[in-house]
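Q: Structure tokens for this one, please.
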Amino acid sequence: MLQAFVITLREGLEAFLIIAISLAYLRKSGRRELISAVHWGIGLSVLLSIGAAYLFQQASNQALWEGVLAIAAAVSVATLTVHMWRTAKKIKSEIEGHLRTSAEKTGNAAWMGVFLFTLLMISREGMETALLMGTLLTQVQAMTIVGGAIAGTLASAAIAMLWSRYGHRVNLSLFFQVTAIFLFVFVIQLVVRGVHEMSEQAMLPYSAYLHDMTESWGPDSTFGHLLTYLLVLLPLAWLTLKSAFFTRPITVPRMPESREAGSTSKS
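A: Here is the predicted structure, written as tokens:
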């Protein structure tokens, strides 16, 4: 449940932020006629994500595809997590920059530009979520995943709403860093499972050796339990470290002394 919660929390927050920033920019820039393009982009991306989830679920029932999906999910998570770690502080300006380029066009070209941008951004988050959930379904009971996914989605919506109102108080950079550490540990789990399943199908060089080695690294092994503990301990340690040692001190500017005080001190 924890993996499903963090995955939907992070991916959902990214999607909600993209939507919130896009709608706010179009309203402020006076291009309200393009808001419908955002709505249509969201609708189509949801349908595409549902279709992808169905296909991934069908593939996850086969041992061969379980390994391929696990490796693909590990690569996807690792690359996008590194990207968000680097650009979390600039996410608002980047989204507004892409929208500005599209909105500066006229007529149908502007509408289509906003629609395609929304479709691409939201579908990317949806596809990644579907891929990760497909790999989790091979390891955890479905009801546990559904409960974690619902909780993560609701939490991401709440955080996005808080950011839209109190953006200066919500540290998105720290949030993405903490969840990135969680997902990096999850990537290790995905790689181990992917290598194990692919070696079982003799798809890799030295498959017999890799299969025997990863067999002892399963979820019920000592290594598997260690990874489970690290999923919680490493993000908490980073959060504590950043909060304790990297918080900027609040400085209060000194008030200038009055002239009367200065003349009194001279006398």
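A few notes: The chain has a mean pLDDT of 75. Residues 2-243 form one domain.
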